[in-house]
Amino acid sequence: MAEAADFQGTPSPARRWLRRTGALFAGAPLLAGLMQLPAAAPAQAAGSDTVSVALDSLSPSAPSDGDTLTVSGTVTNNAKQAVTDAHVDLRMGSLLGTRSEIDTAARHSDDLQSSLGTEVGGKYTEDFDSLGPGVAEHFSISVPVDKLDLGQDGVYQFGVSLSGKTSAQQWDQVLGIQRTFLPWQSSEADTKTKTTYLWPLISTVHVTAKTGAGELQTPVFQNDDLAKEISPGGRLAQMLALGKDLDVTWVIDPDLLASVDAMTRSYRIQGAGGTTTAGTHQAVAKQFLADLQDAVTDKEVVALPFADPDLASLAHNGTSVTGSLSHLKDATDVATTTVKTVLHVTPNTDFAWPVNGAVDPSIIKVATSAGADKVIARSDSLQETGGLTYTPSAARPIGGGTTAVVADARLSTAFEGDLTQADSSTLAVQQFLAQSLALNTQTDKQRSIVVAPQRMPSASQAQAMATAITALQDSNWSQSQDLAAAAKAKPDPGATTKIPSSSAYPSSLRKQELPRTAFEQIARTQDKLDNFQVILTDESRVVTPFGRAINREMSTSWRGSGSEADSFRTSVESWLDDLISQVQLIDKSETKLSGRSATIPVTVQNNLVQGVDHLVLRLTSTMPTRLEIGGNPYYEQPVAVSGGHSQSVKFSTSANANGRVEVTAQLYTVDGQKYGAPVKFDVKVTEVTPTVMLVIGGGVLLLVLAGFRMYTQRKRAAARRAEEDDGPDEAGEDTPDAPGAPETPVASEAESSGDTEDTDGPGNPAAHGDRLQEESVARSRADDPEQPSDPTPDTAPESADPSETGERVDR
Fold it and tell me: Where is the sequence biased in composition, kind Basic and acidic residues (predicted)?
């Protein structure tokens, strides 16, 4: 009770007498009770948990002259004994001179050991005869502000307490209290703070890399969560409804716009086992975009890079992976196009926003690498070291043409707690307004202050933010300003411009970053995409959805969800692998070649919807000395296959020797990169050699000569028979015994008939001719050059010399 002297106002004489009397009567029992308590226990510690006071609303949040303050809330008896003669009082505390004092007071808002303040008293109380155990009672008290004895402008402590008696302590005492802050600016301030409040419209990743095979490429969503967020009552729907009436700078992730825009048409929801179901929230999506277009008309819109990439993760873990920074540039380039297309406004893309405004030199370097020249930092990262007695303006030149826009940490973090309960929300609003007014009273210099809240406020947090912004816009000490104007404001010469070192980066944030392995997987997926798009006749059908999916893999929204991020990256790469495998070579079984030359077909299959081109099919022989392809060890042919078709590519081959040869078929892109898996198969060469053909030809010639011989023999025999038939008539003219007549041998019957067998005797002309023909053929075969593919003879060539040991000879 002696602590009341620390507060403004003096209790009435009657109340002072009652307090003294109560203290005298209570002295002896209290002393006896203290003898039984632990020495360290404070006198009123038991009462701190007896009754809880919830301050559900305070209106107006920042009153001015002539206003009436209405305070409402709930008191709850948490003890096992009833509270009698209970009454709710309003209490005015002292004027808080600094922002640090506000912080300290907020940490002890329900502490009975701290200053209780002065009761407003009079009729501005609410009484309860009895407050039973576990019972909660609502209260509402209205008081004109001129009854609060407010003095100079500034921030005052303001409390609501419940006093009463218990069966154990039969005297009037404060059993519970809840303190807050009452900002008091009775009239327009001579110098107003220019305040910029960022209103973020950002969500998590919803769209996969998959699209339907049709002409419209129906997108596939991971789930239906986005529909819940944009439906009436959903988080984003409330953000939109609240923000349209506020003078704020909209900070939008273009991925959210693209995702909602995709929902306005046919879309599907991914299910278990690869199944999908049709999405049904087209009307909700159309209404959300229509309302958003109206809300941002004539308002400043700042577009983040597509999918809000995690700049700190990229700076700390991604820059060492080739190509990672190119994704940030791509995400920045597509941001403007997306916002223009969906919202029909031109956004500002000059700002980069690292997580929680935490910066170090590497983050600044990455953040500005894609064209942004302004980085939204926060004052708990870029801390003041110059000993300023006031909060400086947000803009700070940090070198290289880059401006750090330093958001105020206290104001930016004011609504990060659980604000689902009305009392928590009210306390957050009052503390925010108190900090804002305390900042304004620090100096007569006009300053530009930026508030950058959490990226994805909950619905309750957004409602508290909107309440605070509305009160701030109606206040006497603040005026609204766009972010671009804040960035251009004249910097305070004493404000720090030194970027903290990498070691100063918060470890709690570093633990949530995407690891290096994530960027390595992203790079691998990009390499596959680059190789794949070369062969497509309509590359936009693949490059666009996969390019945006890769941007989503780097999203800041994955912080705290490492396993989900890993699963998403794996699904993107797997789906790309599936598409790549739709263009492939058909497996071949063993191929047999008969003859020195033949054609080998290889089939390319394209199961994609679109055609493929700019492919080269190479067929390679592993034994070119035995089997040549196109006159070389390998041969290439261009390939173009329509969607859903197959094409056979034929290769000319020449065999030089018999045997089995392994052949490899491999697809390549026109720039020489392998495409897909190779197909290997065996070619069995069964070549017919020139020597064999000569032998066959010789045999045919012998058959012809034999037929001719038989024909001539029969003709001669017929002539002899004709002579014999004419013999008796001529015999009568010649006398057998006449001198000089030669002896004529008589042919045998067999000989005259022409049926006698041929012999090798010199007297047989036909046999002699046959032997000459065979010798001619033999000489021809001997003189014929040996072919490379001729098999090794089973025997050595004939020779009149004696046989060597082990040598095989013809017999």
Answer: 768-784
